[in-house]
Design brief:
By secondary structure, the protein is an alpha+beta fold. Helices cover about 20% and strands about 35% of the residues. The structure holds zinc ion.
Length: about 650
């Protein structure tokens, strides 16, 4: 199914030389590339009715490819772009001649790159250069399934722009306002816009000489002292088609698709699937498609760079995401409608499976294939299912040996009903899973993190590190937000991730001191306020601490607040606030009596901490550091212990 459709899609965008209307000059406005460096986007002013003529050639000494865009004017100054993750090292774009008008792109590449692996694609008269790196030289793995959000786990790809082109961006900003602006319904206008928004942010950040949290992780110096700055480009997938085929949902577009963990919601029963770093074409946003008599699907732009798919269905457990080879297509397939669907023409042998325990909580599973693999990843609370649709059988003994003596030992392999292999890996509800695929779809890497279970410390264990009265007391930590609820969002950073990090660190300090800790969530899951309160009231804790990060429309505001509502929370609020202010160098905004849901409805002494402002650039940057998170966690843990010490034994 995917294969057929992809052929259909590709035939629609494959470049072919067309007769050009001599009177029309095409403006080349915008050049960009995605964060895997495998797609270069060249935005043009050409309308849908006009056509582009591109000539491709090769030069040597040094070896380079040139592409001449006929009858075109490059509206910016000559630019150089350096790629980091690709066999293409650099490309230049500029006006080659003015009579005739030719814009030339020159591409410099690694000796191991084959020029024929550069595909020139054309879509609505915008140009995509797609690099198929058949040589598995690069170890770049692109994230395709994402539950973890900590910076160590994610491959950070960057976009490099030289200082000169940053200056040019101001001109681009004005140029956009000229009447050559493409019509509203031009879907690629949105890509342009998205990239322009990114560049305008870059410009603003640079202009204000500020370091934004999402930008400038490093600054390097290049060759002739020309300063280079690295910026993240946040959109790497552009969806412009959604179709229903035999009761399955096919999403396709340009770039690289990445899927978040499915979220299941009730009333009505539905699956929510988020695609991070994704832009949805305006013309398919919010249109509803019927999957079957009782099921429907909708896609929308949930956040500036997150697409959201909502499937209304009663059989939510039957759906899983199947990735196409090139990661440009996603089939959200229903297991029961998979017969008669052929996903690929090739068969891929599993050549190796390797399980690498990274540390006591993290395992990496690496699977290599002899050819491109079509797969799906589905995570349930207790297992991870990896369907390899075009894989041939792998030696059962070799499989067992790979997992032997690891925490994933009970993993198993079986045949899929029609063709292919299913690998089932046992995980815990608290586990987080991330998957990566290499650029030529012959290797998958699955990272599984399972936090240590919180056990009631038995009486036999020494508990002298905390006063005797504390043993047996339960502390509930409530990391604010989670899952679909991101909390505050600034510069690509979500409150929910910071609150979880701090809560986990706090938990581990307290647990190490022999204190019984419960968390309302251990991972990036959606938990309602009602559920948090219900959970707390069930556990009868000595204290309930909700952890949040603040935000304001006024970016200059920063500092720390502690909230309580009921009288029983006042004392713990005072002690915690004091401990936090003693350890963190930020503005003391004081104690507040606030009727927040979780601190109003929990029976235990409860507080809600606002540990800084995400909306303040300086504080956001600090909040993202391990140092600030560790300090916050230590201060909260110390405060909790100090408070518990004053409480009568329960
Ligand atoms: Zn919050």
């Amino acid at each position: 199914m995917i294969r057929k459709l992809l052929i259909f899609i590709l035939s629609g965008i494959l470049f072919c030389a067309n007769v050009v209307n001599a009177e029309e000059i095409v403006k080349i406005n915008n050049v960009n590339f995605d964060n895997s460096d495998s797609v270069i986007f060249i935005g043009t002013s050409a309308g849908a009715s006009s056509s582009l003529e591109i000539q491709k050639g090769k030069l040597s000494n040094p070896d380079r490819i040139f592409l001449d865009i006929k009858n075109a004017v490059y509206t910016q100054n000559k630019s150089n772009f350096i790629l980091k993750n690709s066999l293409i090292k650099e490309f230049k774009i500029g006006q080659f001649s003015t009579n005739p008008n030719i814009v030339r792109i020159v591409i410099y590449y690694d000796p191991s790159f084959k020029p024929e692996d550069l595909k020139v694609l054309k879509h609505n008269n915008n140009i995509f250069l797609k690099i198929n790196n058949e040589t598995p030289k690069q170890d770049y793995m692109t994230s395709i399934y994402d539950e973890l959000k900590d910076s160590n786990s994610k491959v950070d790809a960057t976009l490099s722009i030289n200082a000169d082109s940053i200056n040019k961006m101001q001109e681009t900003q004005t140029a956009v306002k000229l009447p050559i602006e493409p019509p509203e319904d031009d879907i690629f206008n949105e890509i342009n816009k998205a990239f322009n928004e990114t560049t305008s942010q870059i410009y603003l950040e640079t202009n204000a000489a500020k370091v934004g949290a999402n930008f400038t992780p490093s600054q390097s110096v290049r060759g002739n002292n020309e300063p280079f700055k690295e910026y993240k480009l946040r959109s790497k997938y552009y969806v412009d088609k959604i179709n229903i085929k035999n009761g399955n949902i096919l999403i396709s577009g340009v770039g690289i698709v990445n899927v978040k963990r499915f979220i299941y919601l009730a009333n009505p029963n539905r699956i929510v699937i988020d695609l991070p770093d994704t832009i949805v074409a305006q013309n398919i946003r919010n249109s509803e498609l019927k999957i079957s008599e009782t099921e429907k699907v909708k896609i929308g732009q949930f956040e500036p760079t997150t697409a959201r798919i909502v499937i209304t269905t009663d059989s939510y457990e039957k759906y899983r995401p199947i990735y196409s080879f090139d990661l440009q297509g996603l089939l959200i397939a229903n297991d029961e409608r998979m017969d008669n669907i052929k996903l690929s023409n090739n068969s891929a042998d599993i050549t190796r499976i390797k399980v690498i325990p990274l540390n006591s909580i993290t395992d990496n599973v690496l699977i290599n294939f002899s050819d491109k693999i079509v797969h799906s990843i589905k995570r349930d609370s207790n297992k991870l299912e990896l369907n390899l649709y075009n894989a041939s059988a792998f030696d059962v003994i070799a499989f067992k040996n790979a997992f032997k003596s690891t925490s994933l030992e009970t993993s198993r392999m079986e045949k899929l009903p029609y063709q292919g292999i299913k690998i089932t890996i046992p995980i815990k509800p608290s586990s987080t899973v991330d998957c990566y695929e290499n650029i030529n779809a012959t290797q998958l890497k699955i990272t599984i993190k399972t936090p240590k279970p919180i056990e009631h410390k038995s009486k036999a264990q020494p508990q002298a590190i905390v006063p005797a009265n504390i043993s047996g007391m339960i502390v509930i930590l409530d990391p604010g937000h989670g899952g679909a609820d991101t909390g505050a969002l600034r510069a690509g950073q979500a409150e929910k991730d910071i609150t979880l990090d701090i809560a986990k660190k706090t938990a581990s300090i307290l647990i190490n001191k022999g204190i019984h800790v419960e968390m309302t969530r251990w991972n990036d899951s959606t938990v309602t306020l009602q559920d948090r309160v219900e959970f707390a009231n069930l556990k009868n804790p000595a204290v309930y601490v909700s952890i949040h990060i603040n935000s304001s429309v006024k970016p200059e505001i920063n500092g720390i607040e502690t909230h309580y509502y009921r009288e029983s929370g006042y004392e713990v609020a005072k002690v915690l606030h004091k401990s936090i202010m003693a350890n963190i160098d930020s503005v003391n905004r004081g104690l507040f009596k606030s009727k927040f849901y979780v601190i109003n409805h929990t029976e235990a002494p409860s507080v809600l901490l606002e540990l800084g402002f995400l909306s303040n650039d300086k504080e956001r940057n600090e909040l993202l550091t391990e140092e600030r998170k560790n300090k916050s966690a230590q201060a909260i843990a110390d405060g909790i212990i100090n408070y518990l010490k004053t409480q009568p034994k329960r």
